Amino acid sequence: MDEYVEDEHEFSYEWNQENGPAKWGKLRPEWKMCGKGEMQSPIDLMNKRVRLVTHLKKLTRHYKPCNATLKNRGHDMMLKFGEEGSGSITVNGTEYKLLQLHWHSPSEHTMNGRRFALELHMVHENINGSLAVVTVLYKIGRPDSFLGLLENKLSAITDQNEAEKYVDVIDPRDIKIGSRKFYRYIGSLTTPPCTQNVIWTVVKKVNTHRYFLLFFT
């Protein structure tokens, strides 16, 4: 797997910076796809590359409880699972093991140009190193039970880049999908190295959570 870059100082989300998104592909040779990739993510979910799937038969989840650690990577918050493994999903007959979760605020994907308050990425990898990401979008509203479990620990490392905090056993099955419809398209990682041919599955239903969690970005 082409690892997500965890040092935020290597790149920026600010377009007017020398290490901003327009320059990512030139910062390192192994990041060239950030400038040359033809299937870049994120995109607007109304894009013609996206198709709406009306059932979850092609997305079978086999998650299980696992030890996990939270890390503030500067550009996002990551929940990384232990070596014992947190289970997998099956996409189009292929198994992808769940590696980690991370959150972006505001959302990276948009819908008809609208950006949401929060976006969860569940990153999976198959035996060949190919990636599949399941995404849940959130708007401000009623508290989400899974996010509520993590709030205190997220708050503790909000202002500490590269800080890590063990969070005990986490069960990915507690994440509310809340819909049998989702958007599916082939894209890329949204940060360097911008790996291509990532299967994106974005849950159609937008979940809710209270404003508190938006403080972490």
UniProtKB/TrEMBL annotation:
It comes from the Eukaryota. Gene3D superfamilies: Alpha carbonic anhydrase. One of its GO terms (biological process) is one-carbon metabolic process. It is found in: Plastid, Chloroplast stroma. Its EC number is 4.2.1.1. Its cofactor is Zn(2+). Keywords: Glycoprotein, Lyase, Metal-binding, Plastid, Signal, Zinc. Reversible hydration of carbon dioxide. Belongs to the alpha-carbonic anhydrase family. This is Carbonic anhydrase. It comes from Arabidopsis suecica. The lineage of its organism: Eukaryota, Viridiplantae, Streptophyta, Embryophyta, Tracheophyta.
